[in-house]
Amino acid sequence: MLLARSLRSVAARALRSPPRRLLFSPFSSSASPRALLPPPAAAAPPLARSLWQLGGGGGRTALLRPRRGSAGGVSCGCGGLHTEGDKAFVQFLTDEIKEEKKIQKHKSLPKISGGWELEVHGTEAKLVRKIAGEKITVTFNINNSIPPSDEEETQEEQKPDEQEPELTSTPNFVVEVIKDDTKQTLVLDCHYPEDEIGQEGEEESDIFTIREVSFQPTGESDWKDTNYTLNTDSLDWALYDHLMDFLADRGVDNTFADELIELSTALEHQEYIKFLEDLKSFVKCQ
User: Fold this and answer.
1) Rounded distance, CA 169 to CA 192, Å?
2) In the β-sheet with 124-131, what is the strand arrangement from edge to edge?
3) pTM of the entire structure?
4) Where are the beta strands (DSSP E) in 122-225?
5) Cβ–Cβ < 8 Å for 170, 147
């Protein structure tokens, strides 16, 4: 009786406990399939962990940012960082420069009719004209001179077979009128209203407007804020018309304003291409 209970107890424990891994030869006919598997301790580590170990324990940083001199970077004598992203960036800039040069209208800056002399200093340009004891200068800067376009309206108006609209530079410009026998300079701050640009069929409409008028000391680069400045928003229309006629008599009229847009657009495009070339050299480290 006791022997039978002992045998049953041993059999029950054998059923509850996992089977032991057999150590006999795998070629034995009695070897079970489970016995052929290697023990858990000998299993290969997961792929992610293996890469982490190869990267020196750096985790994701070691994978995304290869060390300098590794397969992901390029070593050169400049001491700068070079990545595969830099290489793709340089290729993009190369293609962009090629396309911009292809659509460039003016290889040299266009001239403005009326005997104006052009001086360019980077992004700033100055037009000078002398007539009958007066010196008229028009100064403008191409930075931020391209008005923002509404992408939604552009996409709705543009047909599939039409090209994208050309970018046009419409900078603010300052007109200075200097008389030989005076110590004051008449300064007129002008700009292009967005609703007037590109309007056709309105010959009498001015494509530029005067915003402010003031007198400043002749020959001084820094203008005084204490000098009275006339804002034309509340100006009598008769006085405003006389100011516009005053400018037109000195060559600053609609024709001049149109040619100024063409000049500014050409200068802006020229500087944009130069910027892309400088950016390419900077990224490529040349």
Assistant:
1) 10
2) 117-121, 124-131, 134-141, 173-179, 184-191, 209-217, 229-231
3) 0.68
4) 124-131, 134-141, 173-179, 184-191, 209-217
5) yes
C-alpha 187, offset from chain centre: 34
Of residues 225, 197, 186, 231, the one with CA closest to residue 211:
231
User: Concatenated DSSP letters for 82-108?
Assistant: -BHHHHHHHHHHHHHHHHHHHH-S-SS
What mean pLDDT, rounded, does the chain reach?
Answer: 76
**Quick one: which H or E segment has residue 120?**
strand 117-121
**What is the pLDDT at residue 281?**
93
Bigger pLDDT: 71 vs 231: 231
* 3-state secondary structure at position 17: coil
Smallest CA-to-CA distance from 142 within 223, 222, 261 is with 261
For residue 134, the cross-strand partners are 131, 179
Residue 215 has pLDDT above 70, yes or no: yes
